[in-house]
Amino acid sequence: MAEAGTCQLTLPNEGTMYAQIRQNARHRLPMLQPHIALDHTVLICGAGPSLRDLLDQWPLVDEVWACNSALPYLADRGMQVTHGFAIHQGDTLVASGEWDRTFEVTYYVASSLYPPMLDRLVQEHRRVAVFHSFLGLPDPVGWDRGAHDGKSYEMALYTDKHLFETGVQVGHGLNSVPRAVCLALGLGFRHIYVAGADCACPPGQPLRPDLGTPEYADWMRAVPMYADGRTAAVFGVHQAMAEGVVNGRRWVTLPDMVISARALLDLERTAPERVHLLGDTLPNALKGLDLCDMPYLSAPGVISNFHQEAA
Q: Of 21, 38, 62, 291, which has the highest C-beta tally within 10 A?
């Protein structure tokens, strides 16, 4: 029997996050300002497999943002990309090889980005602008919010004018694409098209073997997860995957991607005339369904409707 409750997320490198934010502030990069893109249009590209199906049917837009590995994937195919986007606080993109190259685009990055990534952009003279991606980090021991206008330590850093100019802050969803959509809304884009935000493997994958078996490891190596052909094995061959059936089609994904699928739907419902989700993706499969039992990010770092087996 599964019981729904709440759980608190922790970042693997949570203990270094405040130092990272301060380290990135030393570059004194320009902060993105609200409403600078009024009446403009943007296509935001995630790196999911459905991105391959949209290469010859893109909407006509003013800007194209590519999140993480979507940038090298699109650049290698001669697609016109104007911006790269990254929020990763750890070395995931470096370790995976997604950050092996930089490109002649403008990079939009979070102030909490893994510092070696930002250092490389600066060293290679790439154009960079910064925004704050609120994480909900715990306050240091002894931090008195009452003495700081009720601000958490994280918010105090973001609003410290000795560190950063005033700028846009986002805080919706867990992964890059929902945060990119949130940023595009804050910048004032009139239309925001979203491609490659699969939040899952393509539907109809072979049945999932038992976790921890050799068959499960082989299955992880075969299940496609990215437009560039990488599989779910990039997360580790024994990473637990979630699965479920939506309107007769079986989807396989990671728990954090389920949360981001709901976040994307929430953003579209909040601004239906501006946010447009494209492709055969889990968020589009979930449209029109009752999502009340799905897990979601109810506050920074807090997941509600978290399901776990009762003792």
A: 21
